[in-house]
Write a structure and sequence with these properties.
By secondary structure, this protein is α/β, with parallel strands linked by helices. Helix content is 36%, strand content 16%. The strands form three sheets. Strands 13-12-11-10-9-8-7-14 form an eight-stranded parallel beta sheet. A four-stranded antiparallel beta sheet has the order 2-3-1-4. Helix 10 packs parallel to helix 11. The longest helix has 18 residues. It is elongated.
Length: 338
């Protein structure tokens, strides 16, 4: 169950509630200044806590991920990033190179993202690569390059953080911290980004179930960070025709279970540039609140993920498709009768 506290309580009064939970035979986990999670429902404890002056509401919840669940939070979560509302009515477009290569390159790409109507620049400064001999990113220098691109365009930045002790560094530069698929269940890292008080985009693991994915999001939420974005980026299946299988089932299923916004990554989900645009369309049609894709002025020369990277013309066409489909699916205006 979730205990909602009255606002602006002192530590002493919060500890009074935690002590009451302990005396009732349970452990309470504080998930922010006004939220305590108790893993199990207990009707007698619920009744006694409801009498405390510090408690505003006690919500019994069946879900194993109470904070991510619609049981506790029925309304959709909206996340404001530099004036753009993720989860709002307009689809969020995040785009950029797999790896940040140079200042000139990332600024050119950021300008193309802005000109096409995009909202955030994506780019890897720290790169988890399958081979230890592949380019691993420029590190902090790459973050500085992204910051220059933001200064030039006003667009927000999303970039991946891979290690708990790098969270503070990456958070200094970016607007959204990205957790990659390989780190979906890196729990020390999830705890640290939860403490960072920056929006976090959590990618689904290569073989992660939807429940495991939402439980991973719970780790972030449990640290008091409510701004979590989920990203379906393809799962590993038996199919070899594409890099991964973009699981569009996950979009409506997650939306039925959780209030968190969900975007799709057709670049990694498919791994072949010719299929990225149709799968971006499919993701929006399935109800995703946005897309994240890889683009480059010359994809053949991209330092990583060249095969799945779009050029600027292809990206503009994708943005147009996404916006058209989103507009077509928007709730119809009520008829006005004379």
């Amino acid at each position: 169950m979730v205990i909602v506290l009255r606002p602006q309580l002192s530590d002493e009064r919060i500890n009074r509630v935690l002590t009451a939970i302990q005396e009732g035979g349970h452990t309470g986990y504080q998930a922010g200044p006004s939220t305590i999670v108790v893993p199990k429902n207990d009707t007698s404890l619920e009744a006694s806590l409801a009498k405390l002056a510090e408690v505003e509401q006690v919500v019994p919840i069946k879900s194993p991920y109470p904070l991510a669940s619609r049981e506790f939070h029925p309304e959709n979560t909206l996340i404001n990033v530099r004036g753009h509302l993720i989860g709002g009515g307009k689809p969020t477009i995040m785009a950029g190179p797999c790896s940040v290569e140079s200042v000139e390159n990332i600024v050119e790409i950021a300008q193309a993202v802005k000109a096409a109507g995009g909202h955030l620049i994506r780019g890897g400064a720290f790169k988890p690569r399958s081979s230890p001999y592949s380019f691993q990113g420029h590190g902090e220098e790459g973050l500085k390059m992204l910051a220059i691109a933001r200064e030039k365009t006003g667009l927000g930045i999303i970039s991946e953080v891979m290690e708990p002790d790098k969270v503070g560094l990456v958070a200094e530069y970016v607007d959204i911290l990205q957790i990659g698929a390989r780190n979906m269940q890196n729990y020390p890292l999830l705890r640290e980004v939860g403490k960072a008080r920056k929006p976090v985009m959590l990618k689904r693991g290569l073989s992660g179930t939807i429940e495991e994915w939402l439980m991973a999001a719970e780790y972030i939420l449990a640290q008091g960070n409510p701004d979590v974005i989920l990203c379906e980026r393809g799962i590993r299946t038996y199919e070899k025709a594409t890099r991964n299988t973009l699981d569009l089932n996950a979009v409506p299923v997650v939306q039925s279970l959780s209030h968190l916004p969900i975007v799709v990554d057709p670049s990694h989900g498919i791994g072949k540039s010719e299929f990225v645009r149709p799968m971006a369309r499919a993701g929006i049609a399935a109800g995703a609140t946005g897309v994240i894709v890889e683009i480059h002025p010359n994809p053949a020369q991209a330092w990583s993920d060249a095969a799945q990277t779009l050029d600027f013309d292809e990206f503009r066409a994708l943005v147009d498709d996404v916006n058209r489909i989103s507009a077509a699916l928007a709730p119809s205006r009520p008829l006005v009768h004379a």
